[in-house]
Amino acid sequence: MTAQSLSPARPAPAGPAGGARPAGPSRRNRAGSRAERLAPLVLLAPALLIIVGLRLWPLVLGVNFSFTGDGDRNGMMVGFENYATLFGDPLFRTALRNVGLLVLLLPVAVAIPGLLATFIYLRVPGHRLYRGVYFFPAVLSPVIVGAIFNLLLAFDGPLNKLLGGLGIGPVDWLGDPSVAIFAVVGVHVWATFGMALVVFLAGFATLDSSLLDAAEVDGASLPQTIRHVIVPSLTRTIQFVFVTTMIGMLTSMFGLLYVMTTGGPAGSTYLPEYYIWIQQGQLNQPALASAASTALFLIMLVVGLAQIGILRRSAGKED
């Protein structure tokens, strides 16, 4: 036998109490993984506190205030009385009908910047110039836009003079109850589609150009390329633009309404946000205005979720 086989075996190193030595690296790994899990929460905490403090908590207070009374009953709980008054008001019902009209016109408001972004992405002649021209209205104040279009759409304004030269009778763009809401919405779309255009262009940056090359090799027309390549590839972008455009239509048209029609003629251009301002700012009924604000929030929530669901099902069918 060799000397190595006769030598006694060395005992395993013992820990402080005579047991096995603790696995130090595993403890450090567990501590590191715990820190990694907590790090995102720590980074998100300031933003969450701001959202809760400045958004969610005021929303809760507003909903609670909508169940109280106005005037002599200020602070008294009145249940759903404000909501009954709200839906019994012809002006608010007109505002709701106009919301339905906006939802119907929403695809057009999204398709316009989407098509223009497609043409710019495909580098039509002058695409760099068009990018700046299309975005320029987005930097203008709604008050300025409204004042400009008040002059253009006046009964004796340039647009009616142009139509007269073509043999078409003048249109009372802002004085006809059946036309005014379309005029205001059209001006709003013109003034704001530049932001949606930028979002679409950002979405095109993620588009796989090889798909467009394959469509061109297969001889696909432009409508076929848009339907079968561009739309499925930009589903997320389209969802985002749909929701933000809808929110803009429902909450950012006050300036145009105030300058162009002041809710007229005969209340035909009322929208919920304008109705809220009238109740709060002119009629001094803050509780009723809170009820209208809550109704507007629920409308945006339901319509937004419905739009996302429809777009997701459409994307699933395309896949």
Keywords for this structure?
cell membrane; flat; 71% helix; MetI-like fold; mainly alpha; disordered N terminus; Sugar ABC transporter permease; ABC_transporter_permease; 319 residues; 14 helices; MetI-like_sf
Written description of the protein model:
It is built from 14 helices and no strands. The longest helix has 42 residues, at 24-65. With 319 residues, it is mostly helical. The termini are far apart. The protein has one domain (89-318): MetI-like (MetI-like fold).
SSE order, as H and E? HHHHHHHHHHHHHH
Sequence stretches where pLDDT stays below 50 over 5 or more residues: 1-7
Structure class: mainly alpha
Reading off the top of the CATH hierarchy, the class is best stated as Mainly Alpha
Question: How many H/I helices?
Answer: 14
Q: CATH H level: which superfamily? A: MetI-like
Instruction: Report the CATH architecture.
Output: Orthogonal Bundle
Q: What percentage of amino acids are in beta strands?
A: under 5%
| CA radius of gyration | 30 Å
List the helices and strands and how they pair.
Layout: H1 3-6, H2 24-65, H3 81-87, H4 90-121, H5 127-135, H6 142-152, H7 158-165, H8 180-204, H9 209-217, H10 222-233, H11 235-251, H12 254-260, H13 272-282, H14 286-318
Helix pairs in contact: 2-14, 3-14, 4-5, 4-8, 4-11, 6-12, 8-11, 11-14, 13-14
Protein name: Sugar ABC transporter permease
Domain ABC transmembrane type-1: 91-307
Subcellular location: Cell membrane
